[in-house]
Automatic annotation (TrEMBL):
It holds the Pfam family AHSA1. SUPFAM superfamilies: Bet v1-like. Belongs to the AHA1 family. It comes from Chitinophaga rhizophila. Gene3D superfamilies: 3.30.530.20. InterPro entries: ASHA1/2-like_C, START-like_dom_sf. It comes from the Bacteria. This is SRPBCC family protein. Residues 17-138 form the Activator of Hsp90 ATPase homologue 1/2-like C-terminal domain.
């Protein structure tokens, strides 16, 4: 495998919910399937999550019209409950998610390494759309 220079991109959102709820909605498969997609013409029909250092996760993301689907997954490298999740994706890219309590709200800051197929801006927009979808789902349930 060739070593590449990957760009690290950081996105964030503030959710009007306590960190315990945000953590639960981020990590439980029954919630992941409700928010892990970037637009209304996609969905996440399946999610599995073994949330522990060394545990693996996988979420199937699919176009609702059945034209395309893929599994988004990897292995956790560090998990600190209600604070931090770090993982490595199947293609070797690293991701970290930081959860910070801000009074009655929770700030979620996600940093991911980009892949080389798509423009960085497109990747940033896609990941931010999923994070925004997570915010909407968590605040409305």
């Amino acid at each position: 495998m060739t070593t590449t220079n990957r760009t690290a991109v950081t996105i964030e959102t503030t959710i009007q919910a306590p960190v315990s709820k945000v953590w639960e909605y981020w990590n439980k498969p029954e919630h992941i399937t409700q928010w892990a997609f970037a637009s209304e013409d996609w969905h996440a029909p399946k999610a599995e999550n073994d949330l522990r250092t060394g545990g693996k996760f996988s979420t199937t993301m699919a176009a609702k019209d059945g034209s395309f689907s893929f599994d988004f997954g990897g292995e956790y490298t560090d998990v600190k409950e209600n604070k931090l999740i770090e993982y490595t994706l199947g293609d070797g890219r690293k991701v970290s998610v930081l959860f910070s309590t801000m009074g009655d709200s929770t700030k979620v800051v996600q940093t991911f390494e980009t892949e080389e197929e798509n423009p960085v801006e497109m990747q940033r927009d896609g990941w931010q759309a999923i994070l925004d979808n997570f915010n909407r789902y968590t605040e409305s349930h």
